[in-house]
């Protein structure tokens, strides 16, 4: 099993329900369980178009047997199931699920970079992550 940390963000629709549903779907992944969940925090959007609604953010500590790329595929599937559409970089989204840390691995590929490249630059990632570390 690998202990991993995920970031969650949403600024469309019922943001609280989006986070609840995303956590439920992560918990339902095969060979994966949610160990800890941070409090939900609110933040201003970073980048992207002007006029976006504030984001709700949280972090999860999970235990999984899924390899990192398989976990990424499953998270992208959850985003898709919840209605996420790729529009513009840093644009509004119904849900965003990011792998922040995957065990003690350092991964650099076209599809996945671990640790997450910008996580230490963003308080909306760092604060929830520190809460569950």
Describe this structure in words.
It is a single chain. By secondary structure, the chain is of the alpha+beta class. It contains 3 helices and 7 strands; from the N terminus they run βαβββαβββα.
Class inferred from helices and paired strands: alpha+beta
Shape field: globular
Number of domains: 1
The CATH superfamily turns out to be 7,8-Dihydro-6-hydroxymethylpterin-pyrophosphokinase HPPK
Average of pLDDT: 92
Query: Which second-level CATH architecture applies?
Result: 2-Layer Sandwich
Order of helices and strands: EHEEEHEEEH
Low-confidence stretches: none
What is the first-to-last residue Cα distance? 17 Å
Topology summary:
Elements: E1 2-10, H1 15-27, E2 32-37, E3 41-43, E4 55-64, H2 68-81, E5 96-102, E6 107-108, E7 113-114, H3 123-132
Antiparallel strand pairs: 1-4, 1-5, 2-4, 3-4, 6-7
What is the structure about, briefly put?
By secondary structure, this protein is an alpha+beta fold. It has helices at 15-27, 68-81, 123-132; strands at residues 2-10, 32-37, 41-43, 55-64, 96-102, 107-108, 113-114.
Keywords for this entry:
133 residues, alpha+beta, 28% helix, Alpha-Beta Plaits, 5-stranded antiparallel β-sheet, 3 helices
């Amino acid at each position: 099993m690998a202990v991993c940390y995920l970031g969650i963000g949403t600024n469309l629709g019922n943001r609280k329900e989006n986070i609840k549903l995303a956590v439920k779907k992560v918990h339902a992944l095969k060979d994966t369980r949610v160990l800890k969940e941070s409090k939900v925090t609110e933040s201003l959007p970073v980048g992207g178009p002007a006029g976006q609604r504030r984001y709700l953010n949280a972090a999860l500590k999970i235990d999984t047997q899924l390899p990192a790329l398989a976990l990424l595929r499953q998270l992208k599937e959850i985003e898709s199931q919840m209605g996420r559409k790729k529009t513009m970089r840093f644009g509004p989204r119904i849900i965003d699920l990011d792998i922040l840390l995957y065990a003690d691995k350092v991964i650099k590929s076209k599809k996945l970079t671990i640790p997450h490249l910008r996580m230490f630059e963003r308080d909306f990632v760092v604060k929830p992550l520190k809460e569950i570390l």
